[in-house]
Input
Amino acid sequence: MNKNLISIKDLSKAQIQDIFALTEELKGNKNKFSKVLAGKTLALIFQKPSNRTRVSFEVGMYQLGGNSIYLAPHEINLGVRESIEDVAKTLSRYVDGIVLRTFEHKNVVEMAKYAAVPVINGLSDFSHPCQALADVYTIKEKLKDLGNVTFAYVGDGNNVCNSLLYACAKTGINMNVAFPKGYEPDKEVLSGAKKIAEAQNKKINLFHDSAKAVQGADVIYTDVWASMGQEKEAKIRKKIFQAFQINSKLVKLAKKGVLIMHCLPAHRGQEITGEVMESANSVIFDQAENRMHVQKAILIKLLGEDK
Ligand code: CP
Ligand code: NVA
Output
């Protein structure tokens, strides 16, 4: 395993499969792993709000016998009170791993460069690897075989979408992405993911029409229209993204039994209707639960003794 988890791009298919195999074991046998990270401490530096990421890492660490310290934005005041380099070097003398949730992706890269301990990307403006790993794990759990899966992402080509592009490509899932013009995923991610997908005879298709993107899909996924840090754009985005809502009319165009996914937090009535969120097809809260199981596997791989 690599020292850090910054991007899914850095993981091989075999490493992802290893993480999933360990996740399955962890989910089925909580007690067996209750001491694997005894004496270890994880620092969580968050420059943005969080429910799932913070709680799942903290509880996960506790369930593995370790400890965690949450550092709110004003405490470390990253890059203002102290440079990222000095924070990384100092924390490396105390803790065994660092999770960083930040705005600029280069902050995660810089933290990893100067930290002697593993650094995990807990979301940046560019990517959200822990989320995408938990998402593909959830799809695998529900559909078993990923061999012939078509995944439709509908909405903003944002951080979550970027990570899903790599996660789907690496695990051999066909991906359709539908977004309004001007809100496409990162160009480099798209071309990188396309190469990985094509090498496995899989496809990444882009659409500006959500109806076309979900046709024949096994999974429909969406995320908020305005991400953290884009609050000022929320009003205008609400108009631009209107045709990209996941509602029951759109769901009917996909395969029967299509899985509905959302990384959460969700805005019911905007990117997804409450009806679809609560429908039998929705695996949204299983997906949220799996954040913890997958991250426990990541923590063991990065912080455990036999890494
Ligand atoms: N999905 C996700 O990362 O949720 P939080 O922002 O609540 O951590
Ligand atoms: N795209 C969202 C994901 C939240 C988990 C954001 O960055 O706010």
The radius of gyration is 19 Å. The mean pLDDT is 97. Residues 5 and 120 are 5 Å apart (CA to CA).
